[in-house]
Amino acid sequence: MSQLRRLLGYLGPYRRDMVIGAALVLAETCFELLIPVLMADLIDVGVANRDMDYILSKGVQMGVCALLSLSTGLLYARFAARAAYGWGARIREAQFEKIQRYAFSNLDHFETSSLVTRMTTDVTVLQNAVNGGFRPLIRSPVMLLMGVGLSFWMNARLALVFLVGAPVLGCILFAIVGKVSPLYSRLQQAVDHVNNVVQEGLAAIRAVKAFVREEYQAEKFDQVNHALRDTSQNTFRWAVLNLPSLQLVMYISVVLIMWFGGNMILAGNLLVGELTGFLSYVFQVMNSMMMISNVFLLLTRSLASADRIAKVLDETVELTSPPQAETEVADGSVDFDHVSFKYSAGAEEYALEDVTLHIPAGQTVGILGGTGSSKTTLVQLIPRLYDATEGTVFVGGKDVRSYDLDALRSAVGIVLQKNVLFSGTVRENLRWGDAQAGDRDLWEACRTACADEFLERTAKGLDTDLGQGGVNVSGGQKQRLCIARALLKRPKILIFDDSTSAVDTATEGKIRAALERLPDVTKIIIAQRITSVMHTDQILILEDGRVHAVGTHESLLASDPIYQEIYASQMKGGDIHGGQTA
Q: What is the reported pTM?
């Protein structure tokens, strides 16, 4: 409940709409509760005395109350909708802003599909709770208290039926809510699983078709879809019991009131109009209890969603800028001082262990290593996408933890191993590197990355639409656009994480030659091909997260067996010293 109260703090400017809505509900309820009193007078006085003027007077008063009740109800709907959907929008904004501040380690705590569900389905549940539950939340207690009070005022003896019927209904509804409450959390988790399978299936649709796995994906979806169906059926099978419970207690109460009321009319202790008005209050009181039970069901589901949303908002961002942070990176030098790293505190082994490395500013460094040797992990510590578990990483002679995160990451351009392009044009994607870049700067970056070769052949050039995730370009073209985007940042450190793997050797040579014309930029190249790094100033070989060797191509080829093996396997037809075999 505390999480829901906390989320209500995001109402902000919509709090006024909620207050006005509550006032309108109170007014609507009061107008409705006046109608049975007027109806009792109409029957007992007007009809009994055949006084048409009195009947018309009371009828007009009842009509006015009905119109006022309708008007206030319509006005409430407007204010409630504005408050509910405005509140939901602010919660989504808060979640999205928080996720944008997450470090990679924070994102590891959530599945992508779960975050999508929390920003959509869970927020919709909260909106529906306000839109559909706020009115009965205000209206029901007022109707219950005033209905019971007016019933006792009209006939205290008949009102004693409430003292039996209301507690029985209350106990039944309480049992239903208690049963349904834990089921809503399972329901939202089942929605997460469905979203996860749908997301994976759509994102990898080309792989699914290439491997003819449509049937497998369909079966996988059927499993989670049926699980959601079963969970939903089990949840709502219990939730819908509140209506028959209400009807059972209500009609038993009506039968008892008609029995006792009829006997009182025969004995001359009760008027027909009083019994008619009293029955109206019976229905209103029972309906109010029904609405209260529905509110509790909505509230129960809302609490489950509020807890899931609060976990996103309460997640402690693990990487933040320190107070009085450094805002200038002096140069592109990089130093690792006995750095060790593991992805979680509970991990038994380090992904990186005792790495010590010095990279002078402006130098070009190649990194080689087998799969799982933590090459990507190493370079992710430079822009502080993760923090070192032990030891210190220095950039520009200062600890990376002393920098403002934006300043540090602005000084580091990184082309990730997984190429990411966004929906939109080439121009829009490139301007992620520099939002103010003009066409001249964009084409210059494209020429350096050899992306101009295919862009000049397109009809729209920089305005070519890339499609969702860059589906309209090949893997090599994606890589070159990502390189151009990184160059537009004009970074002091440029990191290529196997970012030319889909580019042919000739094009890679052109890109390498163009990059050599950036003397003040430190370039770190992770590669699988030895030709990508053999011309660098120094080559680092990683093995199982440790530094195996550091040296130039010539020194490693002469002395290091791992480098010799890589060279021999890739440079077919040559001896280990680079010459041709006889």
A: 0.70
